Amino acid sequence: MLDKTPKILVGLWTDTVNYRGIKEVGNGPGAMSNLQLTPYLNVDRPQLQHSSVTLRASLTVDSSNGVACAASARLWECLLENHRLPYLLLRVADMRMTLGSKVTALTLYEELQTMLGAPQLARWIAHSRSSILAEAERQMFNYKNDLSLGLSPSQRWRSTAEKDTFPYCKLQSAHIDVIRQWQNMHPPKDIMAKCLNLHCLETNVIEGTVQFDPSDTARLVEVGFYNQAELVDLGNPIGGAALSEIFTSLESDPLNLTVETICRLHAEFMQTSRVLYIDTVSGSRLSYLNIGITRQVSRCNVTATSREQGVKIQFCPYDEVEADLITFCKRFNELVRQADMDPFASAAWISHVFLTIHPFEASFSLY
């Protein structure tokens, strides 16, 4: 059953839009103010009276349909990325606040206040900021010091990015020659695209999400993920924006990984996971995930628990995430530039260190 959250959120989709406000403060003259788009009206077609072709009907969802509410929320978030309109700022801020992302909601309220200059809103923001940040500080102190949280002594966080030594596995000259031969067999983009397709499939198998039979796996590795109705060039595996970003990064010489690149990739990978309707032990609910920003920005701590082994793992406290991530990027760039380093040993070190930082609220398949 849905809790009261969707009923609150339904205001995001069904409240009367302040079109006048949008017109006056929108991105450009009359932004979104002409709801019928009359300059582009095709007068030759029949005039349709169906409610489904109206703006209000298009933006309205059933508050009892959690999946539809989540999809609608993702749409509003995407709109806000490119259109910093007061209406969108207010509604998305309300949605984030309701779903528990109070720090990032506060940022949107403050941006809205710079546009509106409303004294009542300014007073509310000042009061809310004080209480929200105080609660974040209290949670941080408990995360670091409260023994009652049940964190396993052996699993308390330490800075692996700073303290863990590089792997000692080195390649012999014959192994380096083999790697170069593989690299020269096909253009790097083709090889890397297929490698990432396989990585995606194998990661989902490990996580227990989905597993394909061998013939389907082989085809997905070769051609990628595509619409079956479209013709596919077997020599050009299809990738999205995130994969294109990875290819571009790999082409730089020397390779230079930065915190900004990691955040940009996270935002691309997690676009469809920003708002989800999920099942939990206490029932179904809407959940919100900040994407493209570190836990230090959203002021969020995370843990992982293995009930079978009775282990609770602590990750990097949020106030140290970005410093540790900077150190990770520096050492990553140093490691991958060593021509004689075993690539499998490098991958193990990189995965282990990145995981212990856990820079984002939720993981993606590179973890």
Residue runs with pLDDT of under 50 for 5 or more positions: 1-32, 234-238
The helicity comes to 40-55%
The biggest sheet, with number of strands, parallel, antiparallel or mixed sense and barrel status, is: 2 strands, antiparallel
Rounded to an integer, what's the Rg over CA atoms? 24 Å
Overall pLDDT metric: 81
What percent strand?
Answer: 5-15%
Domain unit count: 2
Order of helices and strands: HHHHHHHHHHHHHEEHEEHH
Question: Would you report the number of β strands?
Answer: 4
CATH class of the largest domain: Mainly Alpha
Q: What coarse outline follows from CA principal-axis ratios?
A: globular
CATH architecture of the largest domain: Orthogonal Bundle
CATH fold-level assignment of the largest domain: Fic-like fold
> Strand order, biggest sheet?
1-2
N-end to C-end Cα span = 32 Å
Task: Give the helix/strand class.
Answer: mainly alpha
Count, helices: 16
| Quaternary organisation | single chain
InterPro entries: Fido (IPR003812), Fido-like_dom_sf (IPR036597), Fido_containing (IPR040198)
Pfam families: Fic
Description:
The chain is mainly alpha-helical and 367 residues long. The protein folds into two domains: 56-145; 160-357, Fic-like fold. It is built from 16 helices and four strands. It has helices at residues 5-14, 19-25, 55-59, 66-82, 86-98, 102-116, 119-145, 160-163, 173-185, 188-206, 214-223, 241-251, 259-269, 295-298, 321-336, 343-357; strands at residues 275-280, 283-288, 303-306, 311-314. Strand 3 (303-306) and strand 4 (311-314) form a beta hairpin. Helix 4 crosses helix 5. The longest helix is centred in the middle third of the chain and has 27 residues, at 119-145.
